[in-house]
């Protein structure tokens, strides 16, 4: 039996989960890794904060140098979140020849290049399975299992908060605000839900997935982003009527050698496996040219699921021979690929418009769509208001650019009150 | 760029898939592994057999010693299937210090101990991702990603043929024979479908999964096995009425330190992720004490999906440093666990009985259930036949032993014509 000392930076939700797993499953971990893992130090901001786990006082420190300068500590587990000071701490650990495990999507997505470079230079391992989709081994999956594939497409439900909200809206008829409120009450959404409901969280995770799947660095700012605030109960109902389910999808596809990257609410066929991913569950649907369709489903957040990924990474380091230099380099190639402007992205669309109920309005709108190369597959007119009626269109595949031109012209019509919603439809998902 | 020579034993469906992937994706494989993989020899039984892939004649051999005695060949890929001579060939390759990749569920499930022992002794790597669920990285998942977990339960749809048949029966109202015929026409089922429809194929795969998840050898003969031949359209309809979907599940659970292992048709709640796994797709649903619920979904068979797993294993060997000795040992611990007799297994049950339509029959049957500790949750009596009517029961959780005693007594009743079907119900699956 070998002994290995590790340090944990941060004792929040995930840090406490890691502590619990290391203690509860110590026997399994020893059997699988050959090591007894000893937590030698835990960095916290406030020593006196009440915590749900019972950690010996002597392990707690507020001074990061206690960790960086301790040569007996071989692995540093960064669970602070945020870019600063997490990034500097990771690099400092790396420069002190410590292997690093992190759950930090923001730091990896935005500062990954610098952190990976440092790890390559020092020959240490850097693992970050927990940074995307919590307990789901998607990074391992792409990085270690699907290596024989040319990956063609990754589509994921990688934000549990928005999936919880959309599930409540679809299954219980709630409106967005009530569903958000319930998510907040249950601890699935923050007091300020911006990062989740406006799609930022999914953008960071998609950048990491795209990097892995296509071996190319992705600037988070190059990812098209649209959140779920504008999804109305009526859109959910129309979707159902057409055989679709609305999910916030993070999508990366290779189109003729360039990448298309986008995070937005999407109507997918209700029989698609992703459509049946409910509540706060996450799932990633991958198309590879050999494996075909593959989906990984599970808990995308939470102390224990995320801790499962963190501790799994620690065990990977121990099994990979902790004394060896890293082979990260070959796993993080920087093949350079262009990112397509969203204007060129092809999609089908659902468009809901409120119009004045006057003769000829449908004709005028349809003509504008046609003039802009947008071909319609379905048109529905319903409603009982005397003055205004909803018009709903589903289009065939068209480019975002053509769609925007058409919408702009339609908005200019006197008989159009409002473009209520535009939601992309992914039939090619199946 | 390094060069590595490999040999393939067998050029059937999977062998041809591997050949295609190595050629089509050679650029990706080189980037990810750092190696150019050269197929130096392919062992076949018949040199003159027509094949869909165009393999240079010089690579083909019918003499295995051309491979075992060639020191320049570092990896042997066994894709012959069956125990003999595949097992001996694998061991011969291992004794000649070659790493081995195999897709052979039968050899690993029944002769794995001897093959692993040889690999440990020679310090070579032995990978077998393709032996269970084709392209789905479930072995990698359990072995490398879920290492931080105490796994509590694995439930899988791991036979595509039966899942295709059950899907056709459920979605298109086919009876078993028509669905089997269609599966055979489409190449999903063999002319002799015994191995698939009677559950043998799933038993082998479950033995491998149980070994990985619980670190213990499992004798395939200790696995309870029941196929899908007796599933009638009427059972599918009743299941739907009760909110269930019938799937052939392979299940392993830990119950108080012992394993419960079984392969049988199972009614699972229709909202369970496994219930939505259709056609020939496979999926494995895993419960770990840290990760919670995790499901891996994808293609369980086919030349390219299975080839994806095989080539992924080759790349794993190259990345693990082909010149190092193996760390297989720590990954195939033989913790010894008992296997519970099926009599002790707890389950809910669906029971369909045809009875004579005489007064008191329901009372007599219900009394027998009660006398044997079988408590009923639902009873349905339908039917329009004058003389015979179907009775359908769903029970609460009960032991297999008690159920068998009850059934035996019920069969003895004069008013009972036939016990038509008994199907286990897994509500705890959610």
From TrEMBL, chains A, B:
What Enzyme Commission number(s) appear in the record? 1.1.1.3
Record GO biological process = methionine biosynthetic process; threonine biosynthetic process
- Residue stretches making up the ACT domain: 350-424
Reactions catalysed: L-homoserine + NADP(+) = L-aspartate 4-semialdehyde + NADPH + H(+)
Q: Which residues bind NADPH?
A: 105
Matching entries from Gene3D superfamilies are given as: 3.30.70.260, Dihydrodipicolinate Reductase, domain 2 (3.30.360.10), NAD(P)-binding Rossmann-like Domain (3.40.50.720)
The alphabetical list of record keywords is:
Amino-acid biosynthesis, Metal-binding, Methionine biosynthesis, NAD, NADP, Oxidoreductase, Sodium, Threonine biosynthesis
- Which SUPFAM superfamilies does this chain map to? ACT-like, Glyceraldehyde-3-phosphate dehydrogenase-like, C-terminal domain, NAD(P)-binding Rossmann-fold domains
Q: Name one Pfam family in it.
A: Homoserine_dh
Q: Does the keyword Metal-binding apply?
A: yes
- Biological pathway: Amino-acid biosynthesis; L-threonine biosynthesis; L-threonine from L-aspartate: step 3/5; Amino-acid biosynthesis; L-methionine biosynthesis via de novo pathway; L-homoserine from L-aspartate: step 3/3
Q: Which residues form the active site?
A: 205
Required cofactor(s) = a metal cation
Q: What class of enzyme is it?
A: oxidoreductase
Protein name from the UniProt record: Homoserine dehydrogenase
Q: What's the name of its gene?
A: hom_3
């Amino acid at each position: 039996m070998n002994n290995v000392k590790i340090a944990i930076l941060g004792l929040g939700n995930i840090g406490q989960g890691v502590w619990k797993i290391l203690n509860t499953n110590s026997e399994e971990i020893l059997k699988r890794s050959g090591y007894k893992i000893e937590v030698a130090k835990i960095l916290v901001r406030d020593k006196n904060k009440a915590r749900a786990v019972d950690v010996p006082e002597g392990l707690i420190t507020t001074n990061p140098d206690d960790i960086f300068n301790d040569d007996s500590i071989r692995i540093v587990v960064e669970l602070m979140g945020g870019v600063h000071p997490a990034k500097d701490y990771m690099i400092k650990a790396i420069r002190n020849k410590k292997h690093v495990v992190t759950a930090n999507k923001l730091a990896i997505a935005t500062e990954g290049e610098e952190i990976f470079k440092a790890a390559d230079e020092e020959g240490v391992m850097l693992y970050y399975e927990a940074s995307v989709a919590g307990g789901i081994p998607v990074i391992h999956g792409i990085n270690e299992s699907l290596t024989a594939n040319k990956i063609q497409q990754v589509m994921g439900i990688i934000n549990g908060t928005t999936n919880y909200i959309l599930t409540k809206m679809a299954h219980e008829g709630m409106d967005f605000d009530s569903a958000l409120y319930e998510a907040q009450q249950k601890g699935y959404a923050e007091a300020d839900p911006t990062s989740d409901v406006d799609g930022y969280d999914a953008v960071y995770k998609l950048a990491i997935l795209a990097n892995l799947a296509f071996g190319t660095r992705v600037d988070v700012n190059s990812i098209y982003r649209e959140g779920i605030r504008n999804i109305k109960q009526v859109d959910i109902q129309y979707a159902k009527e057409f055989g679709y389910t609305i999910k916030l999808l993070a999508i990366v596809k290779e189109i003729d050698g360039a990448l298309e990257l986008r995070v937005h609410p999407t109507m997918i066929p209700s029989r698609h496996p992703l459509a049946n991913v409910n509540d706060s569950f996450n799932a990633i649907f991958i198309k590879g040219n050999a494996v075909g369709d593959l989906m990984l489903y599970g808990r995308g957040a939470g102390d224990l699921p995320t801790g499962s990924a963190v501790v799994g990474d620690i065990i990977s380091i121990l099994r990979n021979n902790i004394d060896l230099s890293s082979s990260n380099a070959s796993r993080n190639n920087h093949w350079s690929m262009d990112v397509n402007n969203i204007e060129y992205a092809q999609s089908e669309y659902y468009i809901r418009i409120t119009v004045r109920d006057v003769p000829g309005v449908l004709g005028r709108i349809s003509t504008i769509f046609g003039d802009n190369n947008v071909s319609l597959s379905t048109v529905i007119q319903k409603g009982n208001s005397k003055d205004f009626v909803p018009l709903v269109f589903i289009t065939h595949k068209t480019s975002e650019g053509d769609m925007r031109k058409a919408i702009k012209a339609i908005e200019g019509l006197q008989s159009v009150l409002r473009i209520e919603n535009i939601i992309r439809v992914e039939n090619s998902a199946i």
